[in-house]
Amino acid sequence: MRFMILVKATEDSEAGVLPNEQLFTEMGKFNEELVKAGVLLAAEGLQASSKGARVKFSGAKRTVIDGPFAETKELIAGFWLWQVKSKEEAIEWVKRIPNPTGDEGEVEIRQVFEADDFGDEFTPQLREQEERLRAQSMTK
Amino acid sequence: MTSEIDRAIDAVWRIESARLIAGLARIVRDVGLAEELAQDALVAALEQWPDSGIPEKPGAWLMGTAKHRAIDLLRRRKRLELKYEEMGHELLGAQHEIDERQFDAAIDDEPGDDLLRLIFTACHPVLSTEARVALTLRLLGGLTTDEIARAFLVSEPAVAQRIVRAKRALAEAHVPFEVPGGAELAARLSSVLDVIYLVFNEGYAATAGDDWLRPALCEDALRLGRILAELTPREPEVHGLVALMELQASRSRARVDRSGDPILLLDQDRGRWDQLLIRRGLAALGRAEQLGGTLGPFALQAAIAACHARAHTAAETDWARIAALYHALAQLTPSPVVELNRAVALSMAVGPAVGLELVDSLTSEPSLENYQYLPSVRGDLLAKLDRFDEARLEFERAATLTRNARQRKLLLDRAAACAREAAPARSS
Fold first, then answer.
1. Number of separate domains in chain B
2. How many domains does chain A have?
3. What is this model's ipTM?
4. pTM for the whole thing?
5. Tens digits of per-residue pLDDT, A106-124?
6. In this structure, what DSSP letter does residue A104 have?
7. What domain range is B63 assigned to?
8. Chain A contacts of B109, Cβ < 8 Å?
9. Which residues have a Cβ under 8 Å from the Cβ of A125 and sit 6 or more positions away?
10. I want to staple A6 with a disulfide (CB 3.0 to 4.6 A). Which of A108, B6, B125, B136 is the partner?
11. Domain limits for position A44
12. Is A85 on the interface with B (CB under 8 A)?
C-alpha cells in the first residue's frame, strides 16, 4: 500500500529559507535509506506559497488568488510517496525523519486510494473516466 | 486482536529484521542460528516494549539483545567443547571465537554487504525453488510463516517445515555466508532474480477475490528487487528485472475487467496504467542500458514492455522494435512461445503474411500442441489475409483449448464472423 507523507510548512519554509547544510546532509542520508529499503517511490520539496496560487470554485465562477497564504501550519512544504506494508510501518519511517535543528514541525501520513478501495460504488465507467483524466493530466 | 503496540513492533520488525539477521549471520556464520537469535530478540521486544515503549533506536536495541543471547549461547557451546576436549574428545565443529566488538560493528557498519550475502544464501542452489522462495520472503521480506502460507495457498505447518528443512540443508551443505565471486556470480545472481520474479508472478496471477496477501506479493517482490538494485548497482540484469516488474505492475489496474477476466494488453484502457510506475520502470531500464553490454533476458522483456508503455495508443506501438527485441530474446532463451510473440510483432510491423510464415513454422512444435494462443494467433493472421475458412477452423480449435469461458465466447464469436465472411465468397 502507498502512503503520502506530507511535510507541513514552517515560517522558514514560507520565507524561502533553504534548509542548512546539516539538514540537507541528514535528509539525503534518510532518503538514501528509504531507497535502500525499497520504500521510496517519489519525493519533492515545494517552494514557498508566495510562488503559488489558489483557484476558488463557486458555482461556475473561478477566482484566482495569488500566494502567499497566511495559515502557515496548514500549508504543505514537501511530500514523499512511500510503498510500505502498513500504516504502522509508515509511522515508523516518519519517526526516523531527521530533525537536526530540533524545530517544531508536523508531518501528516495519508493513505493513497487504490482502485479497489472504491468498491462497487465506483462503476467501471466512472473509474475509466477518472483514470483517463489522471493520465491526461500526467502527459500534459 | 493485535494491539497498537504489537502492530508497531511488527512494523519495526519489517524494517529491521533483514539487516538484523544479516548482521548476526556474519558473526555466527549460520543463517538458521542468526534467524533464531533475531526471533528471540523480537520475542524480548514483544515482552518489554509494551511497558517501556519503543526505543529510540529499535534496530540497535534488537541487535544488542540478540548479541547477548548469541554470546551466552556461544560461550555455552565453547564450555561444552572444552569439556569434550578435557575428556579427550576432538573439538566438535568449528571454533566460535567471538568478539563483542563484532556485534557493535554489525550495528554500525554499512549493512549492504551482509544483506547481499543473506540474499545469495537464501537463494542458494542446494535449496529447492520452493525453499528459496520461502526463505527469501521470511529472511529478507520480513514475512511471517503464516503470511507466506496464505500468499502461496499452502498450510502454515508446510511452510514452517519448508523453512526448517531449508535452514538445515544450508547448514549440512556448509554453505558459506558470502557473495559468490568470479564465474559463479552470474549463475547465482540469476537464481536470485528468478526467485524474485517468481514471487512477483505469483502475486500477479492472483485475482481480486484472493486473500489480499497474494496480490501483495507483487509489492514484496518489487521491494526486494529495488533493494537488490541498490546493493548491486553495476548489474544490468537486476535493473532489468526491476524495470520489468515496475512496468508490469503499472498495468495491474487495467488488465482485468470487473468480473476478474483478463483484458489483453492491446485492449487495455491505457488511461488506467500507473504513470508513476511506468516512469520508474523506464528509469530502471535506462540504468540497465547505460551499464552497457548486451541486455539479458529480463532487460529485454522490460524493453518490450517499455515499447508498450511508451505508446499512448495501441496503434502507436513500435512493433518493428518489439520484433527485434523478441529476436534478441530468442537468441538468449530460445522458445517457441517467444517465437510466437515475435510472429505477432512481425505481423503488426510488416504484415500478416510475414507473421503467418513464422507461425506456420511453429505448428509442429510439440510444446505448443495445446497452446491456445497458437491457433488464435494463426486464426487472426488468416482472417487478415481473407482466408476465412481456415481462420474459422483455427478459432474453433483455440476455443476448445481455453479454460476461460469469456475467452471461449470471444473466440467462437470470431469463428462465427469468419463463417459469415466466407459464405458470400463461396456463393459468388
1. 3
2. 1
3. 0.81
4. 0.86
5. 999 999 987 665 544 444 4
6. -
7. 1-89
8. none
9. none
10. A108
11. 2-113
12. yes
